[in-house]
Structure formats: structure tokens, C-alpha cells
Inverse folding.
């Protein structure tokens, strides 16, 4: 390579990274020419699918470091280099490599031996994940553990970073946990030092879905509680949970209002501005038993009914008590009502209510006790009062149309 031979210095920078699904290593050559001008070029990259099970992230990171050493061997055999530097975003791996005293499990020991056979601990450096080019070799996976590690250096946490006030620290497995001041409480470690999960990451949604399902679609407080007691601290959890529940089909089915028919337009006599009790609805209720007087042997009971007059516009009510279900009692009640409340334009009554029953009773009673047509009697009163009546049985036609 004629270009390379003219350069003043040749440095090899090798980066390694791992996720649950892949390990990767990338090598760059940094050259400086005689005038001091630097030039950086990609030399070699290699990625491998991670072993399927039983490997912690630090172990995978260690395997990635071995891969870095392996590709470096290939390069060194073909290139003359001044210096070689290695980078990993795993502090655990750096710990393994620089360790002089601790004894490791065979898995770790074998790999550390491989690395140290070819490189010295002084060649190994830390690089934050977001500046680790090897990260892209592993990035197709939701490797939240790895992404978390780039926050692992405390000095790097910006004051405005949402996790800054959580006192984050790295645990022995290289996972980022929230510190906090409840270390002496009775809670278990998971709850005391929850794993920090970035709220915008897919894994956060997966966690919310899982625990929301697990607690059978209870509300956001329960969902939040379930996530916390499982040992996760999701940044912006409350908002995430709320929006998740809002979109949750099961929750919508359970909590939404039932669909209902749109009511037809109100009749005009329910709407027209007018003095109270201009348009009136009538209903009866009762009977109930009352003590009417004391006797020597005890009490005498009798029954009472009430007639309810409702103003159809203002919903004001007027109640008249009647002592018997007779047409005269009813008519007197209407008269008393009209005397107090003034002239009524329209009386309206729903079908199928007590009122219809009362009218039936009235009809039967008055027919048997009086020669006079009861409807006629009532209408005479209504005409006298200047009122009309609607929505009553077909036999009860409007006054004047009889
Ligand atoms: Zn739900």
C-alpha cells in the first residue's frame, strides 16, 4: 500500500459491543501523514449471532472483546502498526481484563486469558455506547441492557437528564439501577433499587403491557404499582401507562360508556320560555299508609296518594295530596294546583305510568258512582281552567274536539 507507507503514524482502534442477540467488533485505522493531518478509515468489522441461552450481557461483552482481539490478529498479520487500542462500553469487561487477583469462572477465565495473551490491560479503554461504532453491529435488537450502559458513567449524566436525580448506579451485572434513600426499608432489593428503563424504549411498552395484563386490566395506579414492585423504574411511566391503557382494547370494552340512542327532539312545550307551570306533566304516586287519628284502642290507619305536577320547562314540582282515588279528589287537586300556580296551558302525561292507572281507576269509580261521563267532567274543569291535555288515552281528546 503506497499511501500507507508514506504515513507517519498508524494506529489501530478496535471497538467491541454485544447485545442479547449479537456480538460485534469493528476496527478502524487512524493514520497521520508527515504534516500531521489525520485520516481515519474502516478496516474490518465482524458480527456474530450471540449464543442462544445462559449468557449474561457481561459474558457476551467479553465474547465481543475476544472477537475484537481475533480480528486484530488478522489485521496485525497484514499491516505494520504503531499502536493498537481496544474499546468496549462494558466496564465489567474492563474489570475482567485488568483484574490481577480475582479468580473467575472457567468461562470468563478462558476468555480473559485469550485477551491478555494478545493485548495488555493498558490497551483497553472505555467508550460510551452512543459513541461505540460496534454498537451498530448489534443494534437490530431491543438490547435495553446495552443502551442502559451508556448512561453508566455518572459524570456523563446531564443535570436535565430525567434519570439524573435517581442516583443511578451500575450493579454487579452491569445493569443500571436507581439509587434512592430507602435502602434500609423492608422492601426487597428489586423494589429498593429498581432497574431504570428508558420510557421511550420499546421494552418499556412491553413491560407495561405485561404487567397491565398480569393485573387483569386494572387502572393505571395498579399497573404502575405492579411494574414498580417487579423492580422496574420506567422514565415517564405514568404518562406511558395512561396512554397505553387509553389504547387498550380490553380496557375500552370494560370501561367505555354503552352506546345509546340519540333522543328525539324535545317537544316545543318542553322548551318554550314561559312562566313556571305553564306546561305541566302530571303523575300520581302512592298509596302509602298513614296514621290518621288516635282511637281508644290504638290508631286508625288510612291511605293517601299524591299527584305530582312537574313544570315541563323548569322541572319545578308541585305535590298535591289526595285522600282517595276518585275523580272529585283528582279534580279538586288540579283546581288547588291551578289556584296556587296559575293558568296551565298544556297538561301532559306519559302513558303507562301510575297516572294512566289512576285515570282507569277514576273512570271505573266515577262510572259506577256517578251518572256523569268522567272524562267529560275532567274536561269541563280543564276548559274552565283554560288548559288542554295531551298524550293521554285516545278517548281523552283535546277539549273542543270532543
Ligand atoms: Zn387493559
Amino acid at each position: 500500500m503506497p499511501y500507507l507507507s508514506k504515513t507517519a503514524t498508524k494506529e489501530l482502534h478496535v471497538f467491541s459491543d454485544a447485545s442479547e442477540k449479537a456480538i460485534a467488533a469493528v476496527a478502524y485505522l487512524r493514520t497521520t501523514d508527515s504534516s500531521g493531518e489525520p485520516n481515519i478509515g474502516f478496516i474490518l468489522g465482524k458480527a456474530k449471532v450471540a449464543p442462544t441461552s445462559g449468557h449474561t450481557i457481561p459474558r457476551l461483552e467479553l465474547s465481543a472483546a475476544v472477537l475484537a482481539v481475533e480480528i486484530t490478529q488478522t489485521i496485525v498479520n497484514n499491516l505494520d502498526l504503531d499502536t493498537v487500542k481496544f474499546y468496549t462500553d462494558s466496564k465489567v469487561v474492563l474489570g475482567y481484563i485488568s483484574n490481577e487477583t480475582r479468580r473467575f469462572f472457567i468461562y470468563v477465565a478462558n476468555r480473559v486469558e485469550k485477551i491478555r495473551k494478545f493485548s495488555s490491560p493498558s490497551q483497553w479503554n472505555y467508550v460510551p455506547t452512543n459513541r461505540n461504532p460496534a454498537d451498530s453491529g448489534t443494534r437490530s435488537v431491543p438490547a435495553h441492557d446495552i443502551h442502559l450502559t451508556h448512561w453508566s458513567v455518572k459524570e456523563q449524566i446531564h443535570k436535565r437528564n430525567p434519570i439524573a436525580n435517581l442516583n443511578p448506579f451500575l450493579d454487579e451485572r452491569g445493569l443500571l439501577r436507581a439509587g434512592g434513600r430507602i435502602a434500609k426499608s423492608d422492601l426487597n432489593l428489586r423494589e429498593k433499587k429498581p432497574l431504570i428503563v428508558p420510557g421511550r424504549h420499546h421494552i418499556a411498552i412491553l413491560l407495561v403491557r405485561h404487567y397491565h395484563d398480569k393485573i387483569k386490566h386494572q387502572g393505571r395506579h395498579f399497573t404502575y404499582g405492579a411494574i414498580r414492585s417487579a423492580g422496574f423504574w420506567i422514565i415517564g411511566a405514568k404518562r406511558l401507562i395512561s396512554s397505553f391503557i387509553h389504547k387498550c382494547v380490553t380496557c375500552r370494552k370494560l370501561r367505555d360508556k354503552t352506546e345509546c340512542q340519540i333522543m328525539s327532539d324535545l317537544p316545543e312545550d318542553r322548551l318554550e320560555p314561559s312562566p313556571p307551570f305553564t306546561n305541566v306533566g302530571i303523575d300520581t304516586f302512592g298509596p302509602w299508609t298513614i296514621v290518621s287519628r288516635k282511637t281508644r284502642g290504638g290508631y286508625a290507619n288510612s291511605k293517601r296518594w299524591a299527584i305530582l305536577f312537574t313544570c315541563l320547562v323548569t322541572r319545578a314540582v308541585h305535590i298535591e295530596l289526595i285522600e282517595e282515588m276518585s275523580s272529585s279528589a283528582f279534580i279538586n287537586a288540579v283546581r288547588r294546583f291551578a289556584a296556587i300556580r296559575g293558568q296551565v296551558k298544556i297538561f301532559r302525561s306519559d302513558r303507562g305510568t301510575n297516572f294512566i292507572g289512576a285515570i282507569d281507576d277514576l273512570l271505573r269509580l266515577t262510572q259506577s258512582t256517578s251518572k256523569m261521563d268522567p272524562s267529560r267532567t275532567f274536561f269541563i274543569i280543564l276548559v274552565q281552567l283554560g288548559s288542554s291535555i295531551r298524550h293521554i288515552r285516545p278517548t281523552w281528546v283535546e277539549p273542543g274536539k270532543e
